[in-house]
Amino acid sequence: MSVPPVIEFRDVHKSFGALEVIRGISLSIDRGSVVVVCGPSGSGKSTLIRMVNRLEAPTLGDILVDGISSTHARGEELRRLRTGVGFVFQQFNLYPHMSARQNVTLALRKVLGKTQAEADAVADEVLDRVGLADKAGTFPGQLSGGQQQRVAIARALATRPDILLFDEPTSALDPEMIGEVLTVIRQLTHQGITLVVVTHEMGFARTVADRILFLDQGRIEEDAHPDDFFSAPRSPRARQFLSQILSPLHTAGD
Q1: Which of 181, 175, 173, 133 is nearest to 153 (CA)?
Q2: CATH of domain 31-45+74-249
Q3: Do 47 and 56 touch, CB atoms closer than 8 A?
């Protein structure tokens, strides 16, 4: 008996006004897999993952998350779905007036109804997992960019999600901070969580992904194992993309 996919796109389209950014994508993602989404700017990568937990709604088609339609989920069903899908943003999105611990506990208290003591215990655990146990009382403005992004990852982990979505999690970081964030994400690949990571860090993608999705103009042009994608991409657009980033390929994320 086959195991159903944890995420399934069914002929999904997304338009912003007259601009169609996702063009008829059908896609299944297996539970516990690590999928890297890459492609040129404007190819629809961020929109693709933002539709999984309904930060964006498809214009046409449907997306199933654990068998539940995220497209049509409302109220309590949508809240439960979003609780099971953690999202890490490019720009951290931390509350500057709250400590690292407070940023992590907010959803635990307000959405999941945990007591302050329960939420604090979870926050301290996940901050320790991302190497920031000693920064729980520190405010975002006192943290480096890499540390802020690790707090954001801890916040996403706090609700015990089955799926984690990363939207270019290192693109707002200085080069020396990229490695510390990629190390944390790399550690998560061994913990049974389904990871979908939008990134330009091809060295990282090559070493951690089970699967590479290459998007161009709202369509999936390549869906391949990393070995095949990097050694023999089928589409001319993917070959051009890789040739343009060939130098970072040997250093990024290592």
Answers
A1: 181
A2: 3.40.50.300
A3: yes
